[in-house]
Design goal:
Radius of gyration: 19 Å
Structural class: mainly beta
Shape: globular
Order of helices and strands: EEEEEEEEHHE
Largest sheet: 9 strands, antiparallel
Number of strands: 9
Strand order of the largest sheet: 1-2-3-4-5-6-7-8-9
Length: 180
């Protein structure tokens, strides 16, 4: 990983607790690589990722042992021979009781768009729980972007779409025992 330019404003760091708070964090011209290793049965494009020109604008970020608050105002990056994300944003809060993601928005250079929200009480993941999670995801994915995420055989099966984007509107309500 490499960091081109890093900016931090109004940071509070307490290593004794530990807790961290940032009014804003910006990173520009950064790069990162991830290599999952070879999968002999299935070569997945997401197993080898190089991301360049990462630009991040993060606001009001707080971490304590009890909770985390993250507000990504803008995230953009280029994956050579893959996806170029021109804008991504969301806010997230997690504590001992739930994960709450609001106003997720991801846009690609090729016109893909993903939007969503979720409220996930951790207790919904336990068998027999009566707590409910709610999630909504709307996606319109360009075939060029899908080709970066799928194996060649999986991508071939999308030929029936022609040049139209793959579209999905997903709503989830329930828990491990009962999902709608």
């Amino acid at each position: 990983a490499g960091i081109g330019k890093l900016g931090i404003r109004e940071a509070i760091i307490d290593l004794g607790k530990p807790s961290y708070a940032l009014k804003s964090l910006s990173m520009n011209y950064c790069d990162a690589k991830y290599d999952q290793g070879r999968d002999s049965q299935r070569e997945r494009p997401t197993g080898h990722i190089a991301v360049n020109n990462i630009n991040l604008d993060c606001r009001e970020t707080v971490y304590t042992p009890d909770s985390t608050l993250l507000n990504i105002k803008d995230l953009a990056f280029v994956q050579p021979d893959g996806i170029t994300i021109t804008g991504a944003s969301f806010s997230a809060m997690a504590d001992r009781h739930l994960l709450d993601i609001k106003e997720l928005s991801v846009k690609s250079r090729n016109g893909s768009l993903i939007k969503g929200n979720t409220i996930l009480p951790w207790s919904t993941l336990r068998k027999g729980s009566t707590a409910d999670m709610r999630a909504w995801l709307s996606a319109a994915l360009n075939r060029k972007d899908l080709s970066a995420l799928l194996t060649a055989k999986e991508y071939e099966s999308l030929s029936m779409l022609g040049d139209r984007p793959f579209e999905a509107d997903i709503k989830i309500h329930g828990n491990v025992s009962n999902m709608e």
